Model the fold of this input.
Amino acid sequence: MNNIITNDLNSYSSLDTQELLDIKNKINTLISNYKLIINNYDNLLNTINKNIYDKCNHNWIIDHYSINEHTEYTCSYCNLNK
Ligand SMILES: [Zn+2]
Done:
């Protein structure tokens, strides 16, 4: 298999310890990279939401689906809460 990451779970049983460790390291690196990408997109979304919040001519309606004790409002245009 030569350290190639595959979704075929059966193929891993034939590998030796070093091959498995190498693949494990590769997967951990991939996971770290994906987490960084997700974090960047989360930051982007936060910035975009702040801009939308400032620019939208909100139409606040009571959010009946909220599980909080106090009344929550959701804008019918941008779907943000106040
Ligand atoms: Zn709005």
Q: What stands out?
A: The mean pLDDT is 91. The beta strands are 60-62, 73-75. The longest strand covers residues 60-62. The CA atoms of residues 62 and 81 lie 10 Å apart.
